[in-house]
Amino acid sequence: MAAFSSGERWKEFFSKTTQLPPAFEREHSIPDISTPLHITLNTIEGLIGKVDSDKQPDYQVYVSLYDLAYRHFFGSQWVGPILAPQGGGGAKRPKLKYNESLYFHTSIHNANIVAVVEVVAITQGASAKPKRVSCGWSVLRIFDEEILIKEASSKGMQKVQLNYGTPRALFFMDEPVEDNEFLKPIPDCSLSFTVAKHKAMFGVMSLIPENTLVGRSDTIPGLLDGSNQSTDSLKKPKLLNQVPIQINNLRIQLHPTVEKFDEELCEALHKDREGTENKKLAGTSISILERRLIVGVHNGLNFLEKPETMHLEVYDEVTKTLKPQSSPNLRRSKRFHTSQKAATGTDSASTCLVMKNKVELNEVLDDPMCAVVFTLEYVVGHKISEEEKRLSQSITKGHTQTVSVRWGVLNPVLQANNTVQVSLQGGPTTFPDYDFLFKMPNTKMQNLQASRVAGGMMTLQWGRGSGISEPLPTSHLLQPSSISSMHSEADETMLMDTPTGRKPPSGKRNGSVPQIPQQSLLQPEMTAAMYSSVLQQQMTTPSINIQPSYPYMPVQQPMYGYGPAYQQTPRSTVPSGPEMKELPYQPLHAPIMALPPQPSRQQGLSRAAYAKLYSTDFPAILDANGEPPEVIDVQKAWEVDLNREIQDPLQCNEIVFQFLAFDRSSSDEKYVTDHGNTIFFTFQFYRLPQVTTERVLLSKPKNELVSDNTSMPYIIHRMEKDQSGPAGLQMKYMMDPAYMKPGEVNMFLQHLSRQVLYIDVWDGESLFLIGQCAVDLKYLCRNGHEAVQSTFELDVMKTEYKEMPNRVMDSGNSAQYPGYKTWLNGKLHFRMANVGYVVDHKSQIVTPLTVQNKSHVIISQTAGNISYPGGSLDGVSITTKSGLSSKKKVVRAHHIAEKNKEIAQLLSTHNDQMVPEKDESSQEGDSEKKRKLARMEALRQKQGVDNKFNTVMAFKTEKQERMKDYKTLEIYRLQTKKDGILNMLSQSISTEHVIHPSFGTSEFFEFVLKNPLNVQQTITIEHEDSDLRVITDAREWRYFKQLNHVMTQVEEDMFIKDSSSQYPQVFLRPKETVQIPFKYLSYTAEHTAQPQGPSDPYKPKKDQSLKKTLQPMQTRYARILFKGEDSKAVSILHLKIEPQPHVVNQTFRFYHPEQSFFKKSIRLPGSLSISTPSMGGPGTMQFYVRCSDSNVISECKPTQSGEPVDVFIKAALAASPQIKHFYVCIYSDAFLTRPAQVWQLYIHALQKVDVSCVEGQTSRFNLLLRGTQASRLVRSFSSNPREMQLYPSEQFLLAAGAVHELSVAVRPMKEGTKQFHLNVIDVECHQLVRTWLISVSCQPPSISRAFELQLPVGGGKGSNKKITYTNPYPHRREYHTLSSREDLLQFRENHFIVEGGETYTIGLKFIPMMKPGVAEILVFINDEDDKNEETFKITATYM
User: Is the model's pLDDT at 246 over the cut of 90?
Assistant: First the structure.
């Protein structure tokens, strides 16, 4: 027996929830992001005590949302509880302690959206009906600058004054409402309230409609304790459990029949069209194109998710066939209906609408008021008449229309039966889509049961979880049902006993996009036998997950050579899941940490070490008075006072770095190369270029240097012609403010107080990286001392990045293996000092020590900033070539021939008759200059005396030349006058501004623009700088204003959005003034990389002055034009861009195969990710990544709070030995204000060679080395000589153009993937000739014998054991033994000879361990060619 569902309880609750939509303009321009808000109404003071009676009234509060801009109430009105006031005796007014919380969410983020509060007094009149009188109202400004920008928990208490009258007066008030002259406040009557963002609502916003005010006493279905009025369920809301359900075998019956219903609907729409167009239409103009069923989950307030759209088919239960999906017109439907009658001889009253696919709903909540809403809609087409075609010659009037005809409700939580019948409703009723429905048939003459199903009946099967657990019969698809089968002896809800069949599942639809069925596979002529056979095959399918999607598909003929074996399973039985599921995936780029070496590893030297160091002849560090600097103890805390550093009179800082000694660590990994005794260093200090030092020589060990006897310290000496020179390597930086940019001193001191210096240590012979160390630069801050110094013993750490294989992880295996390994590879003895000096104020380059206060608001010339200096029409003498006016306000007259070379060539007057201008920039003395000028003047006078009394002919010639020159000058003036005037006029509307941006840092400023005309103008903002843009987003504008403390207004929708121009446009009224926000953000950086190798101290350095002018630090200029509708400039902004140096927080260096994509994930430091607020939503963190190279992909996905954050980088590499260099900026805000981290990355492209081998066995291969243009003396080096050896290992001559063969032998001692580096070095020039990346894939060996033993912890000198080995060959063989753990196991003899068939005893010595544990040791027995004969496994347990 099928259960009946009418949903009366849900419909009753839904009818009480009504709301008004926002203004049309708001509704079509709101963003997608909705913001949850929390309003608390605390107390109302000063209420009117009595209203038309002596009895104290009760009070009630009404709250509504109102749009001041469009004068429109919207949303739903909240009605608060009725409460009695406190006090009110005598002259004292009563006080109402309301303490009610209101919650809502909205996507209209505008200051014109307010909450209107009205206080109503309720008194009991003479009749039983209470009397309500308004006793005050007010407006709450819920949106302001602080709410829109901050993620604040509360703004604090606010108060507003209540006013007389009614809130309906808002319809006649303009903004600002508080300043309206007709508004009369109630004296001493105020409302206290708070407004805050409510982050806890992010997870339950789908339960509440937008702009709906809800309180504590309101019922919210789907919310935990949502119906409990005594608790505030929205304070910390939690959703009820979700119950995923599936709906199958859905069938809809429309009365009297589907054909009659469609015919009546088309006739009604046809008459409606005739009435709308007011004319008689010939024939039928309406045709049914499509039938849909809209399915969605509704909690009585809102749809929890976007409803899904399913297609319906017309199915004839007598002929077992599907009818056409659409009827072109009503006449065709009648013909089809008539033909079916003639063919079958029966009435087609047995037709129904069926849904072939299942519906999966995962958002159903375990709440009785959470229902599934079905809406049946038709898509109809309007046919165009022949007359209209002839008149319009188009088909523009032909269109489709969607008509909602029926709807129904299913409460799955209240249903105990899997088979449910849902009554369909229509007519003038309210349903969730708020649309008109097709009329219901007249049921006045019918009984109650017949009236329930008059609108139609929908029969379906539903189940929890993945589907229906038991197979169901299919009689509903084989036998027609009718109203006559009703019976109600036992229960009124049991109407029809029509068991329904089970239809197979199909894919779930996303959104409301309809799924188009395959019409070619659904043939109406399919016979009943064929349909029954297919249906029977479906019923025998054991699992629902492999049921077909289309049960009506006929058996296809064999095609493309597939025989009966393939055709015996029809296409309909192909398994199809609901969706493609993405499995957890571990990427190739396993994350690495962002900070390999940490400054916390730095250590202070002992007293004996200090004495030994000072006894060495290191360069002495002295201050300006010749005294040694103050020594800082790095073992104690060193606090830095930045204000004290800035106010220090010794602003010139001499930074000294000294490399004293280097300890080669004897670590267990044995990764230190032993090729030579020379090293060099690379580092980058502050914004200066990266420094590669010269090679330094390591002297003999000095064991007294440190207390650790296992370390091997070497004194660093400079090399002088390959011999030991003076001790120590010293680097100096003179940071003189006179040669720094404005304000750079403060930035430099901040850099010292916060940043870390990373030093790379390289092997001087093989050019392999030994490791990296870090030192905290805060010890360079002097804290009032004249000079300071500190000495460190820094750990040199080596990091090896492993290549992890791609792997799809199982649900149970969540282990993530790190993609890197770090170990200690030495120690560097390092000293640094800072010596302060007084700035030389007599220097020619005078730069202010600090930057003036930056002004973020620029007032244009047209808006009142009258700073036009005037001057001549010659633009060159007033403005520079950049467009910025000169500071020089005095204009001196010059000879025109001296200022214009073209005019000087055209003039006939001799150059010697011109009086030269006094050169102020000459470096000669004044006396020498005067003497030369006097001699020239005397010579000129002498020539003039000689030529004074020449002939008259000479005088006329001179006069003619002068007249010719005057005419030339007149023509020149006429030609340049127009340009001069235009230049002068442009200067009168030009404004200058200078910004000092840094790499990756946003520079914000506002330009105050005024329309100087008396007519409105559409201003277009044009500029050519790609790094400069106009801020058009109001949220971004508010963010930057608050960040830079700019107290100006923000205007919503100020810029024209639908403009066809490529530049931003803004509309200005006559004489109107607006602020135009600008943002400058540049990622221009230097991408050149220095070649790998040390620098040559004896090689002269090239002049890089020309290169410096091309660097990103060069001053740039930008010109911004504000043009009117006539394309003429209204105002001009000349922007001077002086880039400031940026800080590099860390440098990474990677090695990767050439001609491939570098992919790596770098994990952010934990302190950075923890201190960052949630930006991506509730409980999530979002970082934003930008790269200086546009060809590099960098991104960071949002993560949950507390989870690690990884930055993914993908870069394409070129051929070897290219080094790719770029910068990465990481931001914690979406508007990219200031980077939290700036990383510098070097990626070395190497030629990769893949090798496969077995653990403990040597594999050999050859590499071809091609000679260069000149012959070189080279040597090959291995990054791990213990596991990879080369031949030839000594120096050899690489002939020009010749091909040499390198033999490589690899014997890894640990399974897995490992990478080695092979360098070929020019030993004379110490240059890298060729490099390879050897990727070794090591497989585990076959274990022939296994042993177990127990060893004591701390067993004295160790334990001796014996094992035997038998030579399986009949002749004499030589073997040698190896161990995978040389630190735990040693052999008595590494080589031995065994006769054929004899047994040899191998002596083992186990090294004592100081800690308990279990170790697995492999013993390899190899032959003469180092091929593995046998492998023994020893499991040693230390107890």
Answer: no
